[in-house]
Amino acid sequence: MLSLTSNTLKPFSSFHPSFLLLSKPSLKPISATFSNPFPPPSQQQLYQPFRPPPSPLPNQFRSLDVKSRLEVLADRLGLWFEYAPLIPSLIQEGFTPPSLEEATGISGIEQNHLVVAAQVRDSLIQSNTDPAVVSAFDLGGAELLYEIRLLNAQQRSAAASYIAANGLDARGVQDLARSVRDFPRRRGDKGWESFDYTQPGDCLAFMYFRQSREHKKPSEQRTAALEQALSAAVTERAKGRVLEELNAEGEGEITGEGEIGEEVRVPVVRLKIGEVAEASTVAVLPVCKAGERDKGLEEAPRECWTEGEFGVVVAEKGWARWVVLPAWEPVAGLGKGGVVVSFSDARVLPWRTNRWYKEEAILVVADRDRKEVSVDNGFYLVGGDGGDLKVERGSALKETGVEESLGTVVLVVRPPKDAVDDQLSDEDWE
């Protein structure tokens, strides 16, 4: 799936130079004294001489020539944030990242990390971050500070304090920064209000809390995610919410806002905008419409794979509609029988309580290899009276003597909502 993000640029404002219009002076008779109608310009300097900006280099490096600067970088003389400014200074001298890598052994990626991390460190100092926190990144901190580059000044300071206090590694810092940026657009998710946006630890805890709901209950994966959430949480309210989820036993698991029935293991998730792009693993599944009946369900491809160095997806047969979903546990567990059925109205499903008051399209993920109607509270794809596909509860099918369905429902996916606008404002940029 190709995901494109389009940003509309504001047109440049038209600039019309203002011209000073002078009227022609009227002629006057010659007199003994001459009065100049145009007073001489004031004695001020109209053009200021060019003054180069102050050197960004530390004092100990300002007197060094190009060769000496290269030696400092090659030998890593000093702390990383001290020699990092040498990189842009050498770029101004005509070097390129590849030529710098050849001369110093510092790769282009590392050059970028050093320069950006040094800027992040400077912003922490300007934000009056605790000097002890800043000094925690003196040794090997470039990789960590680089990961919080997209946060605003206040978020950077709070994140740096949390990183230093908890000794996070690069992967942990990546998750922390992502959770802070992602938190505002998760408004409305279950438990969101119990976590404090101003606390990076609570943002990270909520990310783990949300991930726990992608696993079956009970399961080791779910418990592990909740334990991570409890460890990351900072506020007492957040900890209490996670403990409440950990201590819950014997309750039906439903992931999402709808409820299908008691003790149901079918998750209902609302897909988030950008969630597929952020997923580390995805699944590609064929899609058929409910109106295509059982014929469309059976004809959908059962197998696809990747080929070549670019991982081109190839299916066993041609098919018109596909969907890419994050590899949530129910999706990842599908074999060759995985298929998706699209319904234009969620109210056709046998919800215990109808929580939607308007039409909402949904995707029903089913396993065609599991056709036996075995669980009363399970949900199964069957043909309706008019021939269209529909979802029925196992108990209802058993009452009518139906023992075999077209497939077992494993997941219901709701469409994304418009995300909360959490883009950085102009004043947030450093």
From TrEMBL:
Q: Pfam families given for it?
A: Raf1_HTH, Raf1_N, RuBisCo_chap_C
Which key words tag this protein in UniProt?
A: Chaperone
Biological process terms in GO annotation: ribulose bisphosphate carboxylase complex assembly
Q: Where does the chain cross the membrane?
A: none
Sorted alphabetically, the Gene Ontology cellular component annotations on this record are: chloroplast
Q: Where is the Rubisco accumulation factor 1 alpha-helical domain?
A: 137-246
* Domain Rubisco accumulation factor 1 C-terminal intervals: 266-417
Domain Rubisco accumulation factor 1 helix turn helix residue range list:
65-124
Q: Return the protein name.
A: Rubisco accumulation factor 1
Originating organism: Morus notabilis
